[in-house]
């Protein structure tokens, strides 16, 4: 039996896993910058409707030890931050008269799924302890 993409009860969000689940801020930003406004709006609407349920589910797990399906759900929540500004402020994929910040590469971000891979984030954390 194949492993579920998302935890039980979040089946309707599986359609977004392949495109929006990414390991780092930069990867999420790249996906967001390639998406159309219709894709962004659709993802935003579906995720926002389930965000509180997702947060309640994820509260049961430590950030560095989530089951894979829950980790994917967490990454979908992180992707909301990348689409929210387009939906809530700009009403279009990019700010009017602004270029996408594709040349800005974040090297650090919120642990564990920020600017580097999960493995690198763990190594970075271990070095600071």
From TrEMBL:
Region (Disordered): 105-129
Compositional bias (Basic and acidic residues): 119-129
Name this polypeptide is given: dATP/dGTP diphosphohydrolase MazZ domain-containing protein
Domain of life: Bacteria
Source organism of this protein record: Telluria mixta
